[in-house]
Amino acid sequence: MTIASAALDTEAFRVAKSCLIGKYRCAWEELVVLKYMTDANTSGLARELRARGIDCDTVHKLILNNEDSRIQIKDPQIISFLRNQAKQITLITLDTELAEYCGIDGIPCIRVQDLVADYIKNHAVLG
Fold first, then answer.
1. Are the beta carbons of 62 and 80 closer than 8 angstroms?
2. Which residues make beta-bridge pairs with 56?
3. pLDDT given for residue 101 in this prediction
4. What pLDDT, in 10s, does the model give residues 10-49?
5. ∠ at Cα 70 (65, 74), nearest 5°?
6. Is there a contact between 112 and 125 (Cβ–Cβ < 8 Å)?
7. What is the pLDDT of residue 36?
8. In what side-by-side order are the strands of the sheet with 56-58?
9. Would you call 33 exposed, middle or buried from its count of C-beta atoms within 10 A (0-12, 13-18, 19+)?
10. What single string gives the DSSP state of each residue in 40-61?
11. What whole-number distance in Å separates Cα of residue 88 and Cα of residue 71?
């Protein structure tokens, strides 16, 4: 068991315990493990997120079971893979078109530019 999985297990236990004592209204089925996948443009981010204890792999690792980013994986193949994951994996991308495809299919997606824009807007100093 890794430190990250132990922390996740501890957090899941805390939430489950809270469910049992009635602090939160939830069901066991709502306890989910969050998993993330970066596209080829953000593949370096996956390593950084893993170092911080976040379950994140690259598109190449999850689809091809290797880290060779020289092999192109086209958007339809990525969408098909994510569709088969039943919303259990969130895509992290810089690709606007790929993010739009995810939106059409209801696939969880984080577009990096949106996060940056939101951060700047929320931290802007007026004056």
1. no
2. 36
3. 96
4. 444 344 333 333 333 334 344 455 899 999 999 999 999 9
5. 75
6. no
7. 97
8. 56-58, 35-38, 89-93, 109-111
9. exposed
10. GGGHHHHHHHHHTT--EEEHHH
11. 25
